[in-house]
Amino acid sequence: MALAGTDAGNHELNETLTRLEQLEKNYNILKENVFHGQQISQLGSWTYDIKRDEMYRSDGMYNILGCKPEELIISFESYYMHVHPDDVEKVKQADKAAREGRESDMEYRIVTPEGEIRYVHEITKIIFDEKGCPAKIVGIIQNITERKLLEEALEFRRKHDELTGLPNREYFTEHINRLCENSLSISDPRPFAVMMLDLDEFKRINNLLGFTIGDLMITQISARLVDYLGETAFISRYSGDRFAIILERFDSLEHCSNIARGILSLFDRTFKLGLYELDAAVSLGVSIFPNDGKTPEELLNNADMALLRAKNEGGKRVKFYSRDISRENLRLYSLRKDLLSSIEKNQLRVYYQPVVSLMTGEILAVEALVRWQHPVWGLVSPGEFIYLAEETGYIIPMGKWLLREVCKSYKSWLDEGLPRIKVSVNYSAVQFFENNFVDNIKAIIDEYGLDYHFLIIEITESILLQRTEKTVADINRLQTLGIRLAVDDFGTGFSSLSYLGAFDIDILKIDGSFIRNVTSGQANEVIIKSIINMASELNILLVAEGIETAEQHRHMEKLNCYAGQGYLFARPMPEGDFKALLSRGGSIPLRKSG
Asked: Which domain holds residue 99?
């Protein structure tokens, strides 16, 4: 063994000191790395010696708490001063469990001395002594504030409408489900009201002025609702122009009615939207829990029915649900709801009604008419669902579906060598408002490789009377392509003659009301003669609609009307029946004897 003071001893001592210095240096580097690692990952740690009642906290722990070591009392209980008041009890329960040997994994909030709220994630481990009793508690804590704020932002976006910031349909559904469950869990639930608010003719505003103006109106409506109702109601943007409101705080049905009328009065003032100042009106349907329903589905359906009644009565009014509304509106409500999925469920059909020469019976053209084969209500007439399609905007996809079906059938007729007749399709004002109206028609015809000349577009006088720049441009484009323009129900408008000089009309279809009375008096005959003479002078083809008797047919032929359409010749029929009729020579035997 080397002795101290000898050369060998001194050398061994120096080596030991060098190793100790290196170990201390490595320890300091490791300690520094741990410190910086905790800073980067926003981690902290602590150890509590249960038997000695001693607490150790790392520098990272102080960084998370937002204070310096000298500012924090080194005790277990003092830590609660830094925990958010709402989370203190949860932390205390976890600490109690740890002292009893149970580990924890939880999230809670702390409050810095400056009042900043931070979210932390804490995991504890228990170190047991040789007797199996808890000796120490070791905790790792991480600042997860950024992650939590991001999660909250994403959750907010999931549950709120991007345009208005209001709760969206998903959030509304969660809220009303929870409200119904809580209300039904107590013996004497407090009533609440479900209100469905719908903006009258909003789609017309969108189509006329564009979606930017429409969005401005929606944001201003939501602002007025929030200003008026404040925190007394849960306000949701349920869909495009529909808002759903849950009103929990009202003293009586009369009080609820007063609030509803107050909502309507919000629309007495005009809306300033960019360069425009527009009036707007809403309809409101209301159902009350639990009298009108105990489930979200019942309450929403019944509020919808009440809304539909309000709109049917002219809009700008409030309707509370009642059983008579349910009975009266059941069919209408069902049709309105089911219409939106009629194409996807393959419920729409195309029927064809021929237009024939009054002299020879030759089929000159055919009008394509949409019908709805409802699974419950059977074959629904257009008079029951077309206005619903226009009101909801569903007329646009329906029109595209109809034209596509017509093109598919017409191509098959040509492939089988059937006569090249014209096909007319009806278009409403709502469809003309579509931005790419002409391009969409052209694209569908091109899809089937057909000549544009086969198509006749039927419109009503109201479209022509508006004479908007877009309407004029679209009609000119259609006619440039070779598509003919027909005016349906001619003679029923207020200014039927005013547009004939402004548009190059190809076909006028005399409304059936004139035809029904053609043999009943001289005045009616004079009107029809005038229309026929005017059409002849302007080189416009004339079609008499609604011919139902041989006498009407004979009379219209005598007046030199060119063509006719009506039950006398053929009722609207499925595509297969019309195809068979066309394949038999393309003409219909005429019955002129009365």
From this structure: 42-149
